Amino acid sequence: MLSRWQLGLGAFLLLLSAALAWQVQGWRYERQLAQQAQAQADATTARLLAEREQRQAVEQRLEESESRHFKELTDAQQAQARLRDRLATADLRLSVLVERDSACTAVPAAASAGGVDHATVRARLEPALAGRIIAITDAGDRGLIALRACQDYVRGVRGY
């Protein structure tokens, strides 16, 4: 038969092994929780890095687009300024096609080999009117460039 001391020792060892098993299970559970938290942190970090790279790519495309549109606008403004200068110095005159029977003062185009009867008739525009036409086309060009810039911006932001 077992002595009291042996029974106490057996109970103590049983309690000790149960407590140790409990502690080991706790450590395992804590390790699993830590691994899950690390996996979530790694996934969040990867997602944030991908979003940052995507945002930087969009910003770079938008910056390139803005530079391109600025250059296009500057080139159009320079071309319009050269055209206005040529009109002002009488280096260039604008003219329009008119009907042959028109009553306005017409300047015939160069005569063709077939005769003058079928020649195209052109009338020169006054310099002030030509300047207004150039101003209108300049505003139209700037508007189209601005529209393309806006469209490119929206496409860039939407990721197209």
Structural summary, described in words:
This protein is mainly alpha-helical. The longest helix is centred in the N-terminal third of the chain and has 85 residues, at 4-88. It has helices spanning 4-88, 127-158; strands spanning 95-98, 107-108, 121-124. It has one domain (42-158). The N and C termini lie far apart (86 Å). It is rod-shaped. Helix 1 packs antiparallel against helix 2. It has a 3-stranded antiparallel β-sheet with strand order 1-3-2, with no helix packed on it. The chain contains 2 helices and 3 strands, in the order H-E-E-E-H.
Radius of gyration: 43 Å
- How are strands sequenced across the largest beta sheet? 1-3-2
Shape: rod-shaped
Helix content: over 70%
Summarize the structure.
The protein has helices at residues 4-88, 127-158, and strands spanning 95-98, 107-108, 121-124. With 160 residues, the protein is mainly α.
List keywords for this structure.
160 residues, mainly alpha, 3-stranded antiparallel β-sheet, 3 strands, rod-shaped
Lay out the secondary structure:
Blueprint: H1 4-88, E1 95-98, E2 107-108, E3 121-124, H2 127-158
Antiparallel strand pairs: 1-3, 2-3
Helix pairs in contact: 1-2
